[in-house]
Every structure is written in structure tokens, then in C-alpha cells.
From TrEMBL:
GO MF entries: transmembrane transporter activity
Keywords for the protein's UniProt record, in alphabetical order: Signal, Transport
Xref: Gene3D superfamilies: 2.40.30.170, 2.40.420.20, 2.40.50.100, Helix hairpin bin (1.10.287.470)
Family: Belongs to the membrane fusion protein (MFP) (TC 8.A.1) family.
Superkingdom of origin organism: Bacteria
SUPFAM superfamilies reported for this sequence: HlyD-like secretion proteins
Signal peptide: 1-23
GO cellular component terms listed in the entry, alphabetical order: cell envelope; membrane
Name this protein carries in UniProt: Membrane fusion protein, cobalt-zinc-cadmium efflux system
GO biological process, one term: plasma membrane copper ion transport
Residue intervals of the CzcB-like C-terminal circularly permuted SH3-like domain: 307-351
């Protein structure tokens, strides 16, 4: 009975030892030679290795740049008022849309009253001088009055015409129609009108504030001619041309692409060796406002090439590598040269005619790199 128990105990120890040996074999990768790494079935499954052959793709070299949304100077209007005054009312808020001719504010001041008063007084005096001029002209022709008196009347009449004309232009500056002005329509208030269609971007005043002629009350932007201004470094300018397509996107929503076309390449090089490139949106989204920062990609050259997913490329010690499947669980790390990047793919530059028949690791390449380099360090 004791012999049977001893036999069972020895058999248990042998089975446990075999299990530990098998577990150790499953755990440790086996390097066979050079840059080869061999995986067990369990390691292969855990690493999530996926292989694929290169495929031909239409690859375009992409230039990645950044910039911001801008509008030409003629589409930005800073609204000020030629005479000082107190802001009586306004309902503007940044982001509001206004049409040309809308009342966007009301100012009041005693000088508005004085200007209208001066105009009506001058107009009345001009009527008197006009009649006096006609009377003196008749008298002078019959020699009933002297030439000097006629000339003096003529000078006063023409001076009053000039004065009235000047006051008329001043009233136009503050938006008052002199033709409709009379003694019963004098007002201490004048309206401020929107000079263009657009969106309000700045409101710099509040009700009750006194504004001077140089002060900017509001800023209005017309987005009809909005464009994207990109910063491109001098070394890449020769790759660009008018009409090239651009894909732009914001940091907040990089998945949504906006198609643009280059309309102007700047001729001035900034101190940081950059040049401004202007693009038009093919279909402008009004949610994009001037000043919004955007990234963009520009296709510069296009060609058909063998390509792999970007995940297939690993970087180690400032070089690029791929893993090629040599056997069912054996992979070899090989240096590689890459070309254009586009839509998650990268072109492979190689003179190997057998490139299309080789299986490359497209997922799990970095796991192989870590296992291979760990083995090298241990040895």
C-alpha cells in the first residue's frame, strides 16, 4: 500500500513539472537568428497579430498645415459716429445678424439740435438773400443802385449758399435728411444705421456711455466672402498652386472635413520663413466664424504605390521597420522606406519584386518589437 502511494506521489510530481515546462515555453518568445522572433500559439493570440499583403493605392503626398478663418478688409466694418454723443439705446449682441439700413443704435446730444438749428436758420437767410440778390440785380441794370452794392449782395448770397451746402453735408454724416427737416422736426436724437449685411462681432459701448468720434461702437462682418488663411513654410511653397484642393477641419471636430481651394499664394515671406496661403470654402458652414483656428491637409503630388496601414510601421532608434511573416509563427523585422501618407495608409518604397507576395504584420507590430528587443537585452 505504501508503494502504491509513493508511486502516485512521484507521478504527480512528474506531471506538475511537465506542466510548468509547457507554461514556460508558452510564456517566453524564442529568437532563432538575427531579427527573427518566434511566438507560441498562446503568444500569437495574446499579441493580436494580423497580417496582410500590400495593396496598390492612389497615394498623394499630404502637406499638413494650420491657419484660421479670415475675411477680406472690405467685409469688416467698424461702426463709429462722426460726432460725439451719448448712447441712448441699442439692442445689439455679438452674433446677431443685421441687414444694411437697420437701426442699430440711437445717440443723443445737444450739438445735434444746434446743427439742425443752424441749417434751418441758414436756409431761411438764404431765401431772403436770394430775393435781395434778384432785387439788386434789377436795380443795377437800371443804374438805380451802385455796382458795389450789387457785388456785396451777390457775395453774401453765394456765401450763404456755400454755408447751407456745408451744413447739408454735415447732416448727411449723422444720418439726417435735410430735405425733410423743418422747424417742427428738430430732434436731439439721431439713428445709427447698419452699413452692410452681416453678423455683429463686437459691441464696445453700453447705454448711457459718451462716445467720441474716433471710438468704434460696433464691428460687423459680412461672411459672404469668408476664406481660410493658412500658414505654409517657405520650403513647401513650390508644391502649391492656385486651384489645389484643401481639406480643413477644426480641433473640436476633426472628423468633419471642409473642402476648400487655393485662390491666392502670398508673395511675402514672414520673419519665421512662412507664407500666407488663402483658400475659399466650396460650401461654407455659417457655424465657422472669423478667427476660428483650423488644421488642413493639402494634396501636393499623387501616384500609385504599394501601401500598408500606418500601424504596420514601427520606429526604433530613429529608423522605420516592418515585420514580415516568414513562417506560421515566425516573423522577421526588416528596415523599410516610406513615402506618402493618406487616409491611414503609407506608401512602401522598395525595389523588391516579391513585395506584393509577402505577408506583413498590420496589427501587433509593436508587440513583436518589444518581445524581440527584450530577448536581445536578456542575451
Amino acid at each position: 500500500m505504501k508503494n502504491i502511494q509513493r508511486y502516485i506521489w512521484v507521478l504527480t510530481l512528474l506531471l506538475a513539472a511537465c506542466g510548468q515546462k509547457k507554461a514556460a515555453e508558452d510564456k517566453a518568445p524564442q529568437k532563432t537568428a538575427g531579427n527573427l522572433v518566434q511566438l507560441t500559439d498562446a503568444q500569437f493570440k495574446n499579441a493580436g497579430i494580423v497580417t496582410a499583403r500590400p495593396e496598390k493605392h492612389h497615394m498623394a503626398e499630404e502637406l499638413r498645415v494650420s491657419g484660421k478663418i479670415d475675411v477680406p478688409p472690405q467685409n469688416i466694418v467698424s461702426v463709429s459716429f462722426p460726432l460725439g454723443g451719448y448712447l441712448k439705446s441699442t439692442n445689439l449682441l455679438p452674433g446677431m445678424h443685421v441687414n444694411k439700413g437697420d437701426i442699430i443704435g440711437v445717440l443723443e446730444d445737444q450739438q445735434f439740435i444746434q446743427l439742425q438749428q443752424d441749417y434751418l436758420t441758414s436756409k431761411a437767410r438764404l431765401g431772403f438773400l436770394e430775393k435781395e440778390y434778384a432785387r439788386q440785380q434789377t436795380l443795377n441794370q437800371s443804374k438805380a443802385s451802385s455796382d458795389k452794392l450789387f457785388q456785396q449782395t451777390e457775395a453774401e448770397y453765394k456765401s450763404q449758399q456755400i454755408l447751407l451746402r456745408g451744413l447739408d453735408e454735415k447732416l448727411k454724416l449723422i444720418g439726417v435728411n435735410a430735405a425733410r427737416l423743418n422747424e417742427s422736426s428738430i430732434s436731439r436724437q439721431v439713428n445709427i444705421y447698419a452699413p452692410i449685411n452681416g453678423f455683429v462681432t463686437k459691441v464696445n459701448v453700453n447705454i448711457g456711455k459718451y462716445v467720441n468720434p474716433p471710438d468704434v461702437l460696433f464691428e460687423i462682418v459680412n461672411p459672404d466672402d469668408i476664406h481660410l488663411g493658412l500658414t505654409v513654410f517657405e520650403k513647401d511653397i513650390n508644391k502649391l498652386a492656385i486651384g489645389q484642393e484643401v481639406l480643413a477641419y477644426t480641433n473640436g471636430n476633426p472628423a468633419k472635413k471642409y473642402r476648400c481651394k487655393i485662390i491666392l499664394v502670398g508673395q511675402d515671406v514672414e520673419p519665421d520663413r512662412s507664407v500666407q496661403v488663402h483658400c475659399h470654402f466650396e460650401d461654407y458652414d455659417r457655424s465657422l466664424i472669423p478667427g476660428t483656428f483650423m488644421n488642413a491637409t493639402i494634396e501636393t503630388t499623387a501616384d500609385t504605390a504599394w501601401a500598408l496601414p500606418e500601424e504596420a510601421i514601427v520606429r526604433y532608434q530613429n529608423q522605420q521597420y516592418v515585420f514580415v511573416q516568414k513562417d506560421q509563427r515566425i516573423f522577421e523585422m526588416q528596415p523599410v522606406k516610406t513615402g506618402a501618407h493618406a487616409e491611414g495608409l503609407v506608401a512602401i518604397i522598395s525595389g523588391d519584386e516579391n513585395l506584393s507576395r509577402q505577408a506583413f504584420v498590420t496589427k501587433g507590430a509593436y508587440s513583436l518589437l518589444m518581445q524581440l528587443k527584450n530577448i536581445s537585452e536578456e542575451e
